[in-house]
C-alpha cells in the first residue's frame, strides 16, 4: 500500500469513523484523521486495517458541501484521485478526493451484485448473524461487563455496573484493603473503553505498583497500557527533537509525548519530580484518570501537598476520575474532604459544612432505614415520615421510594461519589490470628526504650551491632526455621532495617530471602517479589520496608511478621492487607515480636487491647488515633507502665465509634456500595451469556470463513493459527504463531496461557466490526424450490441497518443500536417476511454457479433495481419510529443528569450554570445526530425459485 497525504481511506475495524484522510506519513507510521467524528488514528503502514475508497464511473459521490454528483471518469494525479462528474442537471464539476464528504456510505452491496462480485450463502448468513449479534449486544443490560478474567464477586460487579454506566464517572473507590479496588477500576475502565465512553485513560500509581497494574489490566481485561517513565519520556521528547533539526525546538514544545498513546500508566513520583512531564500529562487531557493509593494526597486548609496539587491539575483536565484508597481518612478528615472535592467540587465545596453533614448522618440513616423497610413491605410512606423527609429532599412523588432514597444519598451523604465495602458486609474472609512475642531489652538499647526511638531503636544503631544483639533478629531466624515450608512476609518501618535483616538472613542464617525497599529500582522490586512468589525454589521470606505494605498481592503467604509497628493504624491495616485479601485461603497468622517494657510494648497493647486492630479491620482507626494521639505519644515517651487507663479509654471510644458508624455513615455507605439482589441479577445475566454456546459456534464459523486454522485443544478450548488460505491479510488479534483460546471463564482463571474469548474480547469485537464494515457476504444469489411458486419467480431479501454518524463521545449507540431491518419481497412488492423468515430461507437456499448467477442478475437487473427501491422505501418507513424511540431513551437518560444538577444547585449555589448547560448541549447534539440517521443497505440476497 502506498499512502499519500490527502488520500481517502476507510477503517476495516471501526466503521463509525467515516471516511478518513491521510494527514501524516512518517516513515513506517501513518496518521489518518476522521473529520466525521473528530478523531485521529495512527497505524503501522505495513499493517493498517484500511481500504482505499475509489469511485468508479457511474457511481454517486457526495462532497463536503453535501452536493451529489455522478462520476463520469476518474484520473489519478500524483497518487490523488480527481473525479470528473455531473450533477442531476448535467452540469459538470471536477472534484478532488480531498473534497469528498466524510459521512459517506461505505459499503455498497448493490454495486458488488451488479458487477458480479457475489459471496457464498454461508458468508451472507454469517454477515446477518454478525449484525444481529452486534444489535443484541448493543442493547444488552450487561454490555461492558462481559469478558473480565475474574470471579464474579457481587460487590465488585455492583460497583462496576453502577459507576461505569455514568458519563465521565468521578468516584472514590474505598473498599477495605484487599477487596479488589484494582479489579473494580479495571472493570470500569473496560466498560468505559468498550462502550466508547472513554478512549484516553491515564493510571497514576506508586512506583512499586506499576508492574502489578500493568499485568492486572492486561491479563484480566485485555487492556494494554503503556508505561511512561523518565526514560520513555526522554526518548519520546528526544525523538521529537530529532525530527527535522531546524524545527527541533518547536517540535519539543508542540508535540506531547503523552499523546502518543491512548492508555498510559505512570507513577505519581515520576510526575511530581518532573515538572515538564507533569505539564505534558495535564495538557494531554484524559477521558478517565485513575489514581491508586490516593491517601497520599494530603491537603489541609493551609497547605496542599505536591502530590495533591499534581492530581488536582490532572483531575481538572480529565472528564472522569477514579480515586482508590482503602483508608480514605488515613491523614484526617481534611484530606478526605479534599479528595471528595477533587471528584465533585460542586457537591463538596465547604469543609465546615462537610463536617456538620458527617455528624448528621445518624438521623439521615434512620430515615433511609425506614424507607428501605417500607420498600420491602410495600407499605406507603406515612404523612409524618413524608414531612420529615421533606426537610431533606424533594418528596413530590411519594410513590417513588427508590428515587427518594437515591436522592437522599446523593444530596446528603457521600453516597454517589464514595463506594466502600467492608469485610463485615461481604463475608467469607478468613480469620486473622495474632501471636505476640515479648522479648527482653538488650543492653544495646537500654537508653532507647521510650518514644519513637524506642519503637525503632535499631535505626540509630550500627547494623552490625543490633543484628547481633536485638532479640527480634534471633527470634525471627528461629521462627523462619520453624516455619520452614511456609512463605513468610516480614514488614518493618525502615528500609535500613529491611536491608540489614535480609542480608543477615540470607548470608548468615542461610534462609532464602529477598528485600523489598525504596532503594531498589522498579524492576529489582518486581524481581524480588516474583522470587518470593515462586513456589519451587523461591524465597521463603520477603523483607519489606513500609513501601511493601501498600497495594501488593501476597495472599499466597499465610504468615505475616510485623517486625515493628507503624505509628498509624491505617498503615497497620495496609500491612495486614497484603495477606488479608481476596484469594487468601487460610487463617492469617500475624506474628508480633516486641521488646518488653518499652514503647514497643505500649504501642502493641494500645493497638491490640484498645482497637483490636490485629484481628479485626477498623475503618476509623485513624480518627481514633487522632483523638488519642497526644496522650498516646506522651505515654510512649514516659513509658511508665501507666498506659492501662489510656487503653481502657481507647477501647470504650472504639466501641462507641463502631456503634455510631454502624448506625450512621457506614450503613449509608454499605447501602449504596452493594445492593445484593441487583448484583446477583447482573451476575446471573452475565453467566447466562457466558454459558450460552452462541459465541463459540459463531467464532468457529468466523474462523472458517476467514481461513483461520483451528485445532481442538480441550473442552471449550482451541488453538487457532493463520493458514495459507487466509481471506484477509489481517485477522484481528491472531498471532503469527497462533493463539490458544478458551470460551470458558473457569478455564481461563486457571490457565494463564489461554486467552479468554468473550463477546467483548478485542478479537471478537474487531472481527465483528470487520464483517460489518467490509464487503464479506453483502451480496449473494441462491435458488429455492417452493411449492406453489412458479419456477423463475424472483425474490429479494435485503438487510438494512440504522446508520448514525456522530462524535464518539456522544455515545449515541446506547440509545440507537444498529437495528437490522429485514425486507423480503417479490417483484410486485408483496411482503414475504412472515412467510419466509430468514432462518427458514437459509435452510432452503441452494448454491448457484457463479456464471449462472451472473447471467441471472444481468437478465433481471431492472427488476432487482425496482425491488431494491421498494425495499429501501420500506426500510425508510420503519426509521421514524426507531428514531423516536432512540430520542425518548436519550432524553430519559440525559435528563436525569440535568434534573440532578438542578436539584443540587438549589441547595448548593456552587454548581455552575455551565455544568447544567453541558448536559443540555449533549441532549441537543445527540438529538441532531439521531435525527440525521439514515438507513444503510447491508446485504442483498437474490433468490430465484426453480
Ligand atoms: N473478582 C476477582 N477474581 C479474582 N481475583 C480477584 C478478584 N478481585 C480481586 N482479586 C484478587 O484479589 C487481590 C486483591 O485485589 P486488589 O489488588 O484489586 O485489591 P485492592 O482493594 O486494590 O487492595 P489494596 O487495598 O491493598 O490496594 C488481587 O490479587 C486480585 O487479583
UniProtKB/TrEMBL annotation:
GO terms for biological process: regulation of DNA-templated transcription. PROSITE patterns: HELICASE_ATP_BIND_1, HELICASE_CTER. The keyword Nucleotide-binding applies. Keywords: Activator, ATP-binding, DNA-binding, Helicase, Hydrolase, Nucleotide-binding, Transcription, Transcription regulation. Residues 475-644 form the Helicase C-terminal domain. A motif (DEAH box) lies at residues 292-295. GO terms for molecular function: ATP binding; DNA binding; helicase activity; hydrolase activity, acting on acid anhydrides. Its EC number is 3.6.4.-. The keyword Transcription regulation applies. ATP binds at residues 175-182. Residues 162-346 form the Helicase ATP-binding domain. Transmembrane segments: none annotated. Transcription regulator that activates transcription by stimulating RNA polymerase (RNAP) recycling in case of stress conditions such as supercoiled DNA or high salt concentrations. Probably acts by releasing the RNAP, when it is trapped or immobilized on tightly supercoiled DNA. Does not activate transcription on linear DNA. Probably not involved in DNA repair. Interacts with the RNAP. Has a higher affinity for the core RNAP than for the holoenzyme. Its ATPase activity is stimulated by binding to RNAP. Belongs to the SNF2/RAD54 helicase family. RapA subfamily. This is RNA polymerase-associated protein RapA. It comes from Alkalimarinus sediminis.
